[in-house]
């Protein structure tokens, strides 16, 4: 949450910062600002709301320069406002900082600095740091930030990625990082700092991801990095592989729609990469030996939101195919519950962004208990990938729409592949059976396209039910998580209250909600629990609920009862959640449009939840 960017080079800094901030807008979009050295003086511009508001301000109050820092905010301390927007400045207006994270002891620092005469202008935790830098400079009688950053690091508690611009040193941008992501990007004669590599492609050709407690500064051509003991660090740069084309909306109106429609091609790529010879799954990047995996007796999955729903499906795959007892925890609960996890427990962390703070904390918890950690991540340069013992690349490509879509189906298929991989190690699923499953998986992209070609049917559902106050989603077994995911998608982007339930639980309370105004989305493909779902649908019908059913083609029972029916092609039980979720993604998207909501940037949310 919050995106930061810094630039030094020969280009006009405004445009570089604005492009970077637009790319980082998924991390927060309640206010934005930049600080630039313009003719030797520090200039700050900030505005409430999205980056386009800041762009408009810069037209009226332009700044010029070749060095600057920028920030797009998701408020933690202090309401979203122009005043609380970053960058924040010291009393003398010579130093500006942008921060992503939370400073836990900011109140204590603030109180002490106010006693020393510092003038605080905002309610943010970040402002404490810039005044602390100023105070330390005064105490040490220096104008150089390198003389004071180590003692500031000693005094602050919490998580941060910080970039600092100082009028006293107009050819450098300083940085410090602990717990929140920050990386360096390099091109000939220009240097960048950013929360995420998406902010600096295609310009940056090489990059380095900072480690916790590293700090230092960049100049146009150089970087200087120091570790927690203030010793110089030699960094190794990696080539930037991401291309700008992956970050464009193409011909789509929104990233979310583009990402929904990308799913068949992503699956083609995944299938090609993961299908090995003789019924074997290929995980070339996964550095956990068969010896270690063969000894695993228990699996704990930790993840959040949509990735937690993927974990719930993953549990079914791992128990069904690999016969390993599996528990699934919300990361925010796992980290505080004193879990029973020992050496032979494998902890799986699932995270699209690879930066979710709670999931990262779960990994630390697991490692403290000597468990091996395998993460499923869509960003292989992320903190979660680097802090795990091994990772599996979800291969979905950058996901920019705040509501996760393509990453979810990529998580599901990779969890299935991993369950098959484990079952191969344990000699549980015979080669012929695995090859049969591979054959079924190969048919998925075409089946996904078939569903996407019928999006108009879902548009009709959205039109008809856009004014509903509540939506209910019902599913069983493999599609219970689909019900949870369908409800989450709808509520997060259309702001309609929605809940997902296991069909069997419905009679234990939630059925009381049903009347003729409530649409109930029943996910009822032909699986082993089909008849049970039919009974649930009858119960809803008897109470006059409106039934919107997702069924398998050729179903002749449910269309007789339901008000609306959407057919998906036949797939075996275990593949149904990969298809049934697609009409629900479309339902959320089109309902948001019908209600004039902005699907890519829903209110109050940010894509990457890097604070607790
Ligand atoms: C919902 C959504 C969130 C994320 C959750 C975890 O559409 O995107 O619920 O799934 O914040 O994020 P990751 O997977 O990045 O750890």
Description:
- The protein has 612 residues and is an alpha/beta fold.
- It is built from 20 helices and 25 strands.
- The strands form four sheets. It has an eight-stranded antiparallel beta sheet with strand order 3-2-4-1-10-9-11-15, with helices on one face.
- α3 (106-115) packs across α4 (127-139), α9 runs antiparallel to α17 and α16 (455-465) crosses α20.
- The longest helix has 20 residues, at 406-425.
- The radius of gyration is 26 Å and the shape is globular.
- The model has no long low-confidence stretch (mean pLDDT 94).
- Fructose -6-phosphate is lined by residues 304-307, 351-353, 356, 359, 403-404, 488, 492, 609.
Q: What descriptors fit this protein?
A:
612 residues, alpha/beta, Glutamine Phosphoribosylpyrophosphate, subunit 1, domain 1, Rossmann fold, 3 domains, 8-stranded antiparallel beta sheet, 7-stranded antiparallel beta sheet, 20 helices, binds fructose -6-phosphate
Q: How much of the residues is beta strand, in percent?
A: 15-25%
Which sheet architecture does the biggest sheet show?
8 strands, antiparallel
Q: Rough shape? A: globular
Number of domains: 3
CATH class of the largest domain: Alpha Beta
Low-confidence stretches: none
How far apart, in Å, are the first and last alpha carbons? 10 Å
Rg on CA atoms, Å: 26 Å
Q: Could you give the order of strands across the largest sheet?
A: 3-2-4-1-10-9-11-15
Q: Assign a percent range to the helix content.
A: 25-40%
CATH superfamily of the largest domain: Aminohydrolase, N-terminal nucleophile (Ntn) domain
> What is the helix tally?
20
- Class from secondary-structure proportions: alpha/beta
Mean pLDDT: 94
CATH architecture of the largest domain: 4-Layer Sandwich
Spell out which ligands are present: fructose -6-phosphate
Number of strands: 25
Tell me the CATH topology of the largest domain: Glutamine Phosphoribosylpyrophosphate, subunit 1, domain 1
């Amino acid at each position: 949450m919050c995106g930061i960017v810094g630039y030094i080079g020969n280009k006009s800094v405004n445009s570089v910062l604005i492009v970077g901030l637009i790319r980082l807008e998924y991390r927060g979009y309640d206010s934005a600002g930049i600080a630039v050295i313009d003719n030797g003086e520090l200039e700050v511009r900030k505005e409430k709301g999205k980056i386009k508001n800041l762009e408009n301000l810069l037209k009226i109050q332009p700044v010029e320069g070749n060095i600057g820092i920028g920030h797009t905010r998701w408020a933690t301390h202090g309401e979203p406002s122009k005043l609380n927007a970053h960058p924040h400045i010291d009393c003398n207006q010579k130093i500006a900082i942008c921060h992503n994270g939370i400073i836990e002891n900011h109140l204590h620092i603030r109180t002490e600095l106010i006693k020393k005469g510092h003038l605080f202008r905002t309610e943010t935790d970040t402002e404490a740091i810039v005044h602390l830098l100023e105070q330390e400079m005064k105490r040490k009688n220096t104008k150089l930030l390198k003389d004071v950053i180590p003692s500031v690091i000693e005094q602050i508690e919490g998580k941060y990625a910080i970039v600092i611009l100082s009028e006293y040193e107009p050819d450098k941008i300083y940085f410090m990082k602990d717990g929140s992501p920050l990386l360096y990007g390099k091109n000939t004669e220009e240097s960048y700092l950013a929360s995420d590599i998406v902010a600096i492609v295609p310009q940056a050709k090489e990059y380095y991801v900072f480690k916790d407690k590293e700090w230092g500064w960049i100049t146009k051509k150089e970087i200087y990095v120091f570790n927690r003991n203030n010793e110089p660090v030699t960094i190794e740069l990696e080539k930037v592989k991401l291309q700008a084309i992956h970050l464009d909306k193409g011909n789509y109106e929104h990233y979310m729609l583009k990402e929904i429609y990308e799913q068949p091609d992503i699956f083609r790529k995944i299938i090609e990469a993961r299908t090995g010879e003789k019924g074997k799954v290929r995980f070339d990047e996964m550095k956990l030996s068969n010896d270690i995996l063969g000894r695993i007796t228990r699996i704990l999955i930790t993840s959040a939101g949509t990735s937690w729903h993927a974990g719930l499906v993953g549990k079914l795959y791992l128990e069904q195919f690999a016969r390993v007892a599996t528990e699934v925890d919300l990361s925010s609960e796992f980290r505080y519950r004193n879990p029973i996890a020992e050496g032979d427990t494998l902890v799986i962390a699932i995270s699209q962004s690879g930066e979710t703070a709670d999931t990262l904390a779960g990994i630390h918890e697991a490692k403290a208990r000597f468990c091996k950690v395998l993460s499923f991540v869509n960003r292989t340069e992320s903190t979660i990938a680097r802090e795990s013992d091994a990772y599996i690349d979800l291969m979905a490509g950058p996901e920019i729409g705040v509501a996760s879509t393509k990453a979810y189906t990529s998580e599901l298929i990779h969890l299935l592949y991993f369950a098959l991989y484990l079952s191969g190690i344990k000699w549980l699923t015979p080669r012929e059976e695995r090859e049969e499953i591979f054959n079924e998986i190969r048919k998925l992209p075409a089946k996904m396209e078939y569903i996407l070609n019928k999006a108009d049917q879902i548009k009709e559902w959205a039109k008809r039910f856009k004014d509903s106050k509540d939506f209910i989603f019902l599913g069983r077994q493999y599609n219970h998580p689909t019900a949870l995911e369908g409800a989450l998608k709808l509520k997060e982007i259309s702001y309609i209250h929605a809940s997902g339930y296991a069909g069997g639980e419905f009679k234990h309370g939630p059925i009381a909600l049903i009347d003729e105004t409530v649409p109930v989305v029943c996910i009822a493909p032909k699986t082993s629990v089909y008849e049970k779902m039919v009974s649930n649908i009858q119960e809803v019908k008897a109470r006059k609920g409106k039934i919107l059913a997702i069924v398998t083609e050729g179903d002749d029972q449910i269309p007789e009862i339901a008000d609306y029916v959407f057919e998906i092609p036949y797939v075996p039980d275990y593949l149904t959640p990969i298809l049934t979720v697609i009409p629900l993604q479309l339902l959320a998207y089109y309902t948001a449009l019908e209600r004039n909501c902005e699907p890519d940037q829903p209110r109050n949310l940010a894509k990457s939840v890097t604070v607790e």
